[in-house]
Design a protein that fits this description.
Structural class: mainly alpha
Distance between the termini: 45 Å
Largest sheet: none
Order of helices and strands: HHHHHHHHHHH
Number of helices: 11
Shape: globular
Radius of gyration: 19 Å
Number of strands: 0
Helix content: over 70%
C-alpha cells in the first residue's frame, strides 16, 4: 500500500490495543472469530486515514479505555464486560461519528449512578452477554444507517438506548417498594427518555422533526417497558442467556415498530 511509516506505526499500535481488548472479551474460542473480523474492519477503516486522524483515534482509544476501567467498580460488569463496553463505544465513533457515541456513554455512566445495582449484587456478575444484549440493537441500527441513511436510523438507535436505560431501572424493582408498578414503570421511562433524548434533541438542533421523533420515542418506550416488566415476572426461571436475548429482542422490535410508524406516517 501507499501507507507511510508513521501511519503504519500508528495503525499497528491502535490495532494492537484493539486486538488485546478483543482477546480479553472473547470466550469459548470466540477470539478466533472476533479478532480476524474486528481486525479486518479496523484495518479497512484506518488505512485511508492520515496522521492527525490516526493520532486522534489512538488518543480516543486510550481515553475511552482509561475512563471505563476507572469506572468499573461502580458497575456490575466484570472486567471482560467493562472492556467490551469500552470497545463498543469506540466502535460506534469509528464506524459513524461522535453523535452515535453519546447515547451508549450516557447509558454506561447513568445506569450505575441512578440504579443502585451494587446494593443488590455484592460482586460484578454481569458478563459480555449483558453488553451484547444492550449493544446489539444499537450496532444493528448503526450498520443499517450505512444502507438506509444515518439520519433515518439515528432515531431508532437512540430509542434503543433510552429503552434499555428504562429497562435497567425496572430490573431492580425492590428498590422502589413504595411505588405502584405502573408509577414505577412510568418514572423509569421518563428517566430513560430525559437522559437519552434530551441530548438527542441537542444534537439534532431542536428542529421540528427531532422533537416529533422524541415525542414518538417517549410513547413507544411505555409499551416496551411494560412488556419487559411482564416478561421479567413470568420468566425468572429461564436461563440468564435467554433473558438477555429476550430483552434485546423486545427493544429491537420496539425500535423497528417505531421507525415503521414514523415512515408510514410521514412517507
Amino acid at each position: 500500500t501507499e501507507t507511510g511509516r508513521a501511519e503504519s506505526l500508528l495503525i499497528a499500535v491502535i490495532l494492537g490495543l484493539q486486538v488485546m481488548v478483543l482477546e480479553a472479551i472473547s470466550w469459548q474460542g470466540l477470539d478466533n472469530v472476533f479478532i480476524p473480523i474486528g481486525g479486518l474492519i479496523m484495518l479497512k477503516l484506518f488505512l485511508p486515514m492520515d496522521i492527525p486522524s490516526l493520532s486522534f483515534r489512538l488518543i480516543l482509544t486510550l481515553i475511552v479505555g482509561i475512563l471505563t476501567l476507572n469506572w468499573r467498580h461502580r458497575t456490575t460488569l466484570n472486567d471482560s464486560a467493562v472492556l467490551g463496553s469500552a470497545w463498543f463505544g469506540y466502535l460506534t465513533w469509528v464506524l459513524a461519528d461522535w453523535r452515535w457515541f453519546i447515547a451508549p456513554v450516557i447509558l454506561f455512566f447513568a445506569y450505575s449512578l441512578l440504579c443502585p445495582w451494587t446494593q443488590q449484587y455484592q460482586e460484578r456478575r454481569h458478563d459480555m452477554r449483558a453488553v451484547l444484549s444492550i449493544g446489539s440493537t444499537g450496532i444493528l441500527w448503526l450498520l443499517l444507517g450505512k444502507i438506509m441513511g444515518e439520519t433515518l436510523c439515528f432515531y431508532p438507535y437512540t430509542l434503543a438506548f433510552a429503552a434499555h436505560l428504562a429497562i435497567i431501572d425496572i430490573a431492580v424493582p425492590r428498590f422502589h417498594p413504595q411505588l405502584p408498578n405502573w408509577r414505577f414503570i412510568g418514572r423509569s421511562v421518563v428517566k430513560g427518555w430525559v437522559l437519552i433524548f434530551v441530548p438527542f434533541l441537542w444534537i439534532q438542533g431542536w428542529d421540528g422533526q427531532a422533537i416529533a421523533y422524541a415525542g414518538e420515542g417517549f410513547i413507544i418506550m411505555g409499551p416496551i417497558a411494560i412488556v419487559f416488566a411482564l416478561l421479567q415476572g413470568s420468566c425468572r426461571n429461564l436461563d440468564e442467556t435467554w433473558m438477555w436475548i429476550g430483552r434485546s429482542a423486545i427493544v429491537a422490535l420496539g425500535s423497528a415498530i417505531s421507525l415503521n410508524i414514523w415512515v408510514m406516517g410521514h412517507g
